[in-house]
Amino acid sequence: MTASDSDLWPVLTIKGAPDTETLADIKALAAAAEESDGNPPLSEQTWVNLRAADSADLLVLATYAGEERSDPATASALAGVAVVSLATAAGADNVLELVVHPSYRGEGVGLRLAEAVQHHTELPNLKAWSHGGHEAAGRLAARFGFAPVRELWRMRLTHPAGMPDAELPAGVVIRAFVPGQDEEAWLAANAAAFADHPEQGAMTLSDLRARMAEDWFDPAGFLLAERRDGGGLLGFHWTKIHPRTGSHPSIGEVYVVGVTPQAQGTGLGKALTIAGIKHLQDAGEHAIMLYVDADNEPAVGLYRKLGFTRWDVDVMYAAQAQADRQESVTL
């Protein structure tokens, strides 16, 4: 670790995974921010990287409040943290997530961390997530010349009683994932289904195993669709249940639905979506949420037909030049 020269909010720089004590501080900070905002401030992949003791694909910048500035009601003096998930392939994005503790907002913590990130000139193609699309995050992004390039909607279903039956294509069956048997087959199906997706399509065996090691993992809710004659996986619906946290009740999630190219257009995606929702209902979850890219019109249309409505939005920012290039390609 190295300390910056700033007297007001000195920044500690950690390359690689943080130590146990710092990780505990980040967890406490993230929990406080989520309780205040209603949004998890760090993505799941970021948590996977933070928890991996041997992870080298991280840059963590943290600032602590001194004794004279610390809030006695706050268990940790960690005022804010910026986590950059470093690109692992040429041309890939470096992705920033920045969190400020509710007790220290409006005191220049976010600005200080953003300046510290900017000083790391070895971070080309830097993009940043704002989970919840907060106005303060938008202002901070604009100050550094960043503009929105992507919207990830969170949609929510609160009255799923009228869900139709899951009508599978002929010759297709659904079964539960079997740990120790289905990992490689699922990874191949996932890569095929999400070949153009910037995060999901890049899932590795270590990523999968890290999620399987989480407390929320339940193979019974990891549904696989395959040919009855054993012709291989055609699609999947991995569900998730978020436990109650603070004042927020538990909620089910359409975690990821994927269909391989050979089965697209057969109605399998809709059938898998419905099957997973009904699994969550049977588990006692009446509120169900999901993430979907705002420009994925077929998926958004399907979810709306099933009763989902837009609930919140995550916004990704990039430097204005990148944003202009992306917009020109889209247009």
Do you know the CATH architecture of the largest domain? 3-Layer(aba) Sandwich
Number of strands: 13
Radius of gyration: 21 Å
Specify the biggest β-sheet.
13 strands, mixed
Net shape: globular
On the 0 to 100 scale, the average pLDDT is: 88
Strand content: 25-35%
Organism: Arthrobacter sulfonylureivorans
Protein name: Mycothiol acetyltransferase
Function: Catalyzes the transfer of acetyl from acetyl-CoA to desacetylmycothiol (Cys-GlcN-Ins) to form mycothiol.
Family: Belongs to the acetyltransferase family. MshD subfamily.
Descriptive account of the structure:
There is one protein chain. The chain has 331 residues and is α+β, with helices and mostly antiparallel strands. It folds into two domains: 2-144, Aminopeptidase (3-Layer(aba) Sandwich); 159-286, 3-Layer(aba) Sandwich (Aminopeptidase), CATH 3.40.630. Helix content is 30%, strand content 28%. It contains nine helices and 13 strands. It has helices at 20-37, 44-51, 109-118, 135-143, 183-193, 205-212, 268-282, 297-305, 320-330, and strands spanning 2-3, 11-15, 58-64, 78-85, 94-100, 126-131, 146-157, 172-176, 222-227, 233-242, 251-259, 288-293, 309-319. A 13-stranded mixed β-sheet has the order 1-2-3-4-5-6-13-7-12-11-10-9-8, sandwiched between helices. β9 and β10 form a beta hairpin. 34% of the residues are buried. The model is unreliable at 1-5 (pLDDT under 50).
Topology:
Blueprint lengths: L1 E2 L7 E5 L4 H18 L6 H8 L6 E7 L13 E8 L8 E7 L8 H10 L7 E6 L3 H9 L2 E12 L14 E5 L6 H11 L11 H8 L9 E6 L5 E10 L8 E9 L8 H15 L5 E6 L3 H9 L3 E11 H11 L1
Parallel strand pairs: 5-6, 11-12
Antiparallel strand pairs: 1-2, 2-3, 3-4, 4-5, 6-13, 7-12, 7-13, 8-9, 9-10, 10-11
